[in-house]
Amino acid sequence: MARLTIIPDDTKIDFVGQRYTAFAVDGLLVVITILSLWFQGLNLGIDFTGGVVIEAKSDKAINVEAVREKLVAIGFLDPAVQSFGGDNAILIRIKPTASVEANEQAAANKIKTALGTGYTFSRVEAVGPKVSGELFQSGVIATVLGVLMIGVYVAFRFEWQFGLAGMLATGHDVFVAVGLYSVLQFDFNLTSVAALLLLAGYSINDTVVIFDRIRENRRKFKRMAMPELINVSTNQTLSRTFLTSFTTSLSVIPLILFGGDALFGFAATILWGIVIGTYSSIFVA
């Protein structure tokens, strides 16, 4: 049986020759990320801001405006109410205020009582400002340490130059992924931190494969110029890189289509990270 070949085994793409075009595209992404973080910032979720989040469903279609008016009538100013997954499901977000911060769980119970018995509640979260601040700090520290430890591992496994390159490339991937949250204003919560850490691990795995082939070829072709060595090594691993990214993307797409609002941001970040991580492994690292 003939083997299915998507990327030919003998490609001779001049990746090094295209580096300036690749750097220009990458630089544009970084600039967009910086500007978006500067002017918009992150849309921090309840995990990092505190407040109350409730997902409710009903057997009948829900009037979003009527629900919002009920919440305003019982003292919650500017509640965020939106439909998701159909007309019979809503997501309620109450920002932290003095009354909410005094007792988040009581605020959640007050909302449930106001909605009445015609609703079922699939998610009720109440987070205080102190806890949310600690979670945000811990999430940032975990992400930074994860990227640093990846650099240390690669430096130990290969050479310090590879470790530095791997750390910078992985940090770049995480930073651009954060930019996606800022540009599209996805909720940035603990699930987002998990997505960033998962992305860092995926990205460095792909990078290490190319680094390992460069190291092998450097021993095999001792007189070959470094640009040519990089091109040969990257072309040799191109089929593996593409197929890994392609098959991983296929597993993420159903989460985007059918995972609902709770998983959409997570899945979209992973898909974006696969694209950026593949690009980064080839051109940035």
Q: In total, how many beta strands?
A: 6
Rg, rounded, reads: 24 Å
Number of helices: 11
The termini sit apart by 37 Å
> What general form does the structure show?
elongated
Main sheet summary: 4 strands, antiparallel
Question: Considering DSSP H and I runs of 4 or more, what fraction of the residues is helical?
Answer: 55-70%
What is the subunit arrangement here?
Answer: single chain
Structural class: alpha+beta
Assess the beta-strand content as a share of residues.
5-15%
Regions with pLDDT < 50 over 5+ consecutive residues? Answer: none
Overall average pLDDT: 79
Strand order of the largest sheet: 3-4-2-5
Q: What's the SSE pattern?
A: HEHEHEEHHEHHEHHHH
What can you see in these coordinates?
- The chain contains 11 helices and 6 strands.
- With 285 residues, the protein is of the alpha+beta class.
- The strands form 2 sheets. Strands 3-4-2-5 form a 4-stranded antiparallel sheet. A two-stranded parallel sheet has the order 1-6.
- The protein is elongated.
- It has helices at 19-39, 46-49, 64-73, 98-102, 104-115, 129-157, 160-184, 190-220, 226-236, 238-258, 261-284; strands spanning 43-44, 51-58, 80-83, 89-94, 119-127, 187-188.
- The model has no long low-confidence stretch (mean pLDDT 79).
